[in-house]
Amino acid sequence: xxxxxxxxxxxYTPKAGDIANLIAQPYDKIDxxxxxxxxxxxxxxxCRLILPLEPNKYEVANERITxxxxxxxxxxxTQPAIYISRQEFTLFNKRCYRLGIIAASRLYSYSENVIFPxxxxxxxxKADRLNMLRNVQKDLEPVFLxxxxxxxxxxxxxxxxxxxxxxxxxxxxxxxEHTIWKVTDPEKILHLQKIFSSKSMVITDGHxxxxxxxxxxxxxxSKGYLDADAAFNFHMCYIVPLQDGLVVxxxxxxxxxxxxxxxxxxxxxRFFDVYEIESTVSAIDSFLACHVGDHAFxxxxxxxxxxxxxKSNDEVYAFVNANxxxxxxxxxxxxxxxxxxxxxxxxxxxxxxxxIFYARWTKEAFDxxxxxxxxxxxxxxxxSAETVVDAALQHEVLPEKSTDFxxxxxxxxxxxxxxxxxxx
Length: 424
Description:
alpha+beta
């Protein structure tokens, strides 16, 4: 049973300035250059909370939000609400939209079979977000969840609300249009709660935030704070129906310290048909697009591009280490990790942002290799949202960064208080 609750959102006030100059991409999408640009935009930019430049970042974030609330830069709503989000964006010359619900969702351990992960996580980001929670006692960014809505119950509810006057409207730096509506009617909220009570949820994005929030909840319980309605038992979540056309982009892999030597190429030929193709972004995109569903990859070493097509599923089963179903063993990202990285390259302990990097766009990964920021780029096709949900509900976890659900919900639109005095 999923328990969602309305909450009194904390938002920017007009005193802070134009909200377009205040919102940020999620903290894990902000690089050093973006961080500097955000700081230059406003002394109240949201980056100063989620990813401060200062070395004592957790204490600084807490001091800032406390000061901003005191000075009226931010304010807390007087009435609890559930929020409806609509994002409109252009992707590959097509106009798209995505609808979702922002609510406080009760935290569940994975063993309770209510909220399911779909990716592996790293220790360092979880420790970072846990320290942030301990200091600010606010959910600064939502966890992104998805669920099945085959009868369009929540979609119909959302469509009804979006005919009303919005609460927030802003266009972000990536030209994604964000509109937020507020739902305070107790009967409407109760109706939505009843719909969700029978749902299961899969984490779309924010695994580290979710697991950090569970750890924080458990810390509070161990200290004797046992009120089931205390806000720290919940996390602000952005909840999107699977049937609403979730867009998943590929996440390309870049490796340092590995080369495309002749022995490596020979090893690849055991498992793949290997084709040398033109060394251009368009050739890579074309090869992948022509082989959707064929377990296809491209690899670029700065001078040559090779297209790879898996010869046989049977070759995979003996080498994939994951203790999962045959269907999951032949996911592209699993083949790439266990066959190419671990078996062929002997890259068994890659470290994020050190020996392995990730890129959303083909050109971005291609250019990083050209600049010498990585030695090899491996390009993949995206996985479908339906496949992710089906695997997660079978308790099967994919390699980290297997998915890139686009676009992200920007940070700074609403946040949630989880201090000890807050009840939901």
